[in-house]
Amino acid sequence: MITVMLVDDHPVVRAGLRGMLEVEADITVVAEAGSGAEALALATIHRPQLVLMDLRMPGGDGVEATRALRETLPEIAVVMLTTYDDDADILRAVAAGAAGYLLKDATSDELAEAVRAASRGETVLARAVAGRLVRQVREPPATTTLSARELEVLRHVAAGATNAEVGRALFISEATVKTHLVRIFGKLEVTDRTAAVTTAMARGLLTPGAG
Question: How many CB atoms are located within 10 Å of the residue 185 CB?
């Protein structure tokens, strides 16, 4: 029997997923969580083989929850299940240790087969997501150039520094740090700090452990 935990901040979504999975003779849902923090606590208790993780939830990002879960309980596979198929989100999820990335328009059969595959240690990707990754490999994005100062800012961000801490380290104002970040986000085509760091690493602009 494959044991699964559902993580989504919408109870109706969790109920729907439970209904789709529990008609399968070899799959059972052992826990449900509405946030990343709750997921980590319940996973410690129930030790499911697989977690289906929503990407965006109030009070916590599914990717960060995935990273924490994989660090704490590496034997548990995590598959992202989301409506978002943005390249940066996919890269962040994979970098965090997700075993797969599915979209919420998956059919019951597709979802069940993905759960089985991930529980066997296989990587599972929605067809659209797989296509995007293949295109990225075949047609890598044009080289993005960040200025020396922008790279300095991003290195400190990668190390976990706040805007104020970056400003103090580089002897610039917090407002200037924010300006640099806006320019970095634009060049990397991302919308947040975590995505900026992950994308920069994926493009070879930063190395893991930068900072």
Answer: 16
Cα–Cα distance between 76 and 69 in angstroms, integer?
Answer: 8
Q: What's the half-sphere exposure (Cβ side, CA atoms, 13 Å) at 140?
A: 7
Query: What is the model's pTM?
Result: 0.66
Mean pLDDT of 94-101: 87
Q: Are 211 and 169 in contact (CB under 8 A)?
A: no
Give the model confidence (pLDDT) of 128-184 as tens digits.
Answer: 777 666 565 555 555 568 899 999 999 999 999 999 999 999 999 988 999 899 889
What's the CA gap between 55 and 160, in Å, rounded? Answer: 21
DSSP designation for 50: E
Is 195 or 143 the better-scoring residue by pLDDT? 195
DSSP string, 6-48: EE-S-HHHHHHHHHHHTTSTTEEEEEEESSHHHHHHHHHHH--
**Chain-centre distance of CA 183, in angstroms?**
23
pLDDT at 209 over 60: no
Could you tell me where the beta strands, DSSP code E, fall in 8-99?
27-33, 50-53, 56-57, 60-61, 77-82
d(CA 101, CA 124): 6
Say how far apart CA 37 and CA 33 lie, in whole Å: 9
**Confidence band for 80, pLDDT divided at 50, 70 and 90:** very high
Amino acid identity of residue 121, one-letter, is G
User: Residue 188 corresponds to which tokens in the numbers above?
Assistant: 């990397």
Beta-bridge mates of residue 82 = 103
